[in-house]
Design goal:
This protein is α+β, with helices and mostly antiparallel strands. It contains 14 helices and eight strands. It has a four-stranded antiparallel beta sheet, with no helix packed on it. Strand 7 and strand 8 form a beta hairpin. Helix 7 runs antiparallel to helix 12. The chain is elongated and about 140 Å long. The two termini are 59 Å apart. The relative contact order is 0.16.
Length: 616
């Protein structure tokens, strides 16, 4: 026996050594199968660089401002072109609130009514709310899901099946000799847990992308506010200009009627013919028909304003007597780089670019294995009175490490689509900056040129008014022909209408330049930047300027997370710190750095760099 035991001992020790080796090899092969899909990550495509944003506007600050009255000195002092020797420009007029830029109480009241009632703006408010709810949904995705429930059922197994035969012969309580009831009830109360462990930050990157799109939705709304304010102001000044045109036509019609009466008197006295009478009558009818056209334009412009204010047609109250003397706040263009901070459409494009970079990280994580943990605990019995019995306790727990092996083409397609979406967002960001710069330069040039043109046209108008008086006096004394009076009156009407139109175009250019610089939304009609938290509470999400957005597409960055409510502030801060590795954040394509927002254009051509093939 001793010899036999001694001979069997090495064999048992060998078996004990072989089994762990098999388990180790099995785990190694499973790990290789899980990591192998990460080697198939396709390379990223990178965008083309954008031109550098100029340091100054071609038309410098102050050139378009101040001289709105149209004096010769103001017109002569406005020189276009770059001025490298000029002093540092003042802060951009975009920072001025609407109440300070416009000084007409009636106009400000209409702007406020439009912000309160405009339905397109309310639609954008709901889009902001939808984006906020998506953030909450993404935020809850990386926490464990716990569900609970109760259930009841009834089962009648066949006696000609193993289950039915066993239950028929097996007593449930041997000491009492009781068999399972037939049919068999089933009562259950259980808590279930499911948790997808966010190893590769896939769920948290999706949350951060949703946050960026929420902030982009706010900027989309702000951009609409700037356009709404500009449209109300532009239509209001157009209405004032039409009133002035109507008053001008009334004065010209009165002047033409006097000339017509004079021509008829000269004909009756035998000093003239029927020809001057008919020519003056024709000019009179022409002016009267133009008056009707202007009246129709007034109706349409009033109703355009009523439509923006969401009200049925009614008279728009205004004071148009001093239209030609209106002085808006002087424009200050500031630096082109300030557009990156002030223009909501540029900030929106930047937010969407950051979100697109985070989407690439979400798509990349699909190549790596996922760890899913499931567990449940509860009580189960065929009779409710046994549910409180400890022997009725049931529980289970499992962990699954799942990696894609076969259908990798679909994952590659999603990854390449995310790359294409990022490039599209990159090019949209670059184009938005270029378009904004060109729009500002065009409008500043328009303000400058129309200011000079207005000064010259006023001088022309003064000369024509004097010429009409002289022509009328000479015609009464038979010193000139009626054609001289006719032409002088016609030129006077044209000049007055052109002065009014030029003034209206100047005001329109100023209003739209204010909008193009990014003004019209600060402090007026801003959305309540809050997101609903769990339980219906609200918490603030402060706007974050672009130069502070150190968000990276890679694993070495720190995406910006909005401020959490008081009950969740500590957890959110801890989560943000533990989720993201420390170090200098690498800004994504299009993000501005602390070195100056103007560098964002150069950096916008650098999409996120992919990790190594093994996913690190």
């Amino acid at each position: 026996m001793v010899r036999t035991d001694a001979s069997q001992t090495p064999q048992m020790e060998t078996l004990e050594m072989v089994e762990p080796k098999r388990v180790t090899w099995l785990l190694a092969w499973m790990g290789m199968l899980c990591v192998l899909p990460s080697c198939a990550i396709p390379p990223l495509r990178y965008g083309e660089p954008a031109p550098d944003l100029p340091g100054r506007f071609r038309i410098q600050s102050g050139m378009a401002g101040g001289g709105y009255g149209g004096t010769d000195e103001a017109a002569d002092s406005n020189d276009s072109g770059d001025d490298e020797t000029s002093s540092e420009p003042a802060a951009s007029s975009a920072r001025l609130p609407v109440q300070e830029f416009f000084d007409d109480p009636k106009l400000l009241a209409y702007i406020q009514q439009a912000l309160d009632a405009n339905r397109e703006l309310k639609i954008l408010d709901q889009e902001v709310q939808i984006a906020a709810n998506k953030v909450l949904a993404r935020r809850g995705a990386y926490w464990p899901f716990v569900t609970g429930g109760i259930g009841a059922g009834l089962e009648k197994p066949s006696l000609f099946t193993p289950q039915g035969a066993v239950e028929d012969q097996l007593p449930v309580l041997p000491e009492e000799g009781k068999a399972f009831p037939d049919p068999l009830p089933d009562f259950l109360g259980r808590l279930n847990l499911f948790w997808e462990v966010d190893i590769w930050r896939q769920l948290r990157n999706a949350r951060d992308a949703a946050i960026q799109r929420y902030l982009a939705a706010i900027q989309r709304r702000n951009f609409f506010v700037t356009r709404l304010v500009a449209e109300v102001a532009d239509s209001y000044y157009e209405l004032l200009a039409l009133d002035q045109q109507l008053a001008t036509l009334d004065s010209i019609i009165e002047l033409q009627q006097r000339s017509l009466e004079l021509a008829r008197a000269q004909k009756e006295a035998g000093r003239s013919t029927e020809l001057p009478v008919q020519r003056f009558l024709a000019e009179l009818r022409k002016s009267q028909s133009e008056k009707l056209v202007v009246q129709q334009e007034i109706v349409q412009t009033e109703n355009r304003i009523n439509g923006l204010l969401l009200r049925f047609p009614e008279k728009v109250e205004r004071a148009s007597e001093r239209f030609l003397d209106i002085q808006l706040h002087a424009l200050e263009a500031g630096l082109p780089s300030e557009l990156l901070l002030n223009r909501p459409d540029i900030i929106q494009a930047e937010r969407e670019l950051i979100a697109a970079g985070l989407d690439i990280q979400v798509a990349r994580a699909e190549f790596f294995p996922k760890l899913e943990i499931t567990a449940s605990v509860g009580y189960r019995a065929f009779n409710p009175r046994y549910l409180i019995n400890p022997e009725a306790l049931i529980y289970d727990a499992a962990g699954d490490l799942v990696a894609p092996l076969i259908n990798r083409k679909a994952i590659r397609a999603e990854f390449m689509n995310a790359n294409a979406e990022q490039l599209r967002a990159l090019y949209n960001y670059q184009q938005t900056i270029v378009n904004a710069y060109i729009e500002v330069v065009n409008l500043l040039a328009k303000v400058q040129n129309y200011t000079q043109a207005l000064a010259l046209k006023r001088q022309q108008l003064e000369a024509l008014e004097l010429s009409v008086d002289v022509a009328n006096q000479l015609y009464q004394n038979a010193r000139v022909e009626y054609l001289e009076v006719l032409l002088a009156q016609r030129d006077l009407l044209t000049a007055r209408m052109e002065v009014i139109e030029t003034k209206q175009q100047q005001l329109s250019a100023i209003v739209n330049a204010y909008r193009a610089l990014g003004g019209g939304w600060q402090g007026l009609g801003q959305v309540d930047q809050t997101m609903p938290a769990a339980g219906g509470a609200m918490y603030d999400v402060p706007p974050q300027p672009p130069e502070k957005k150190g968000v990276s597409n890679g694993d070495d960055g720190r995406p910006v997370v909005p401020a959490a409510p008081p009950a969740e502030a500590a957890a959110a801060a801890k989560d943000a710190e533990s989720d993201m590795p420390t170090g200098d954040p690498t800004a994504p394509a299009g993000a501005a750095s602390e070195n100056g927002p103007e560098r964002a254009v150069r950096r916008s051509a650098e999409p996120d760099r992919p990790p190594s093939r093994d996913g690190t």
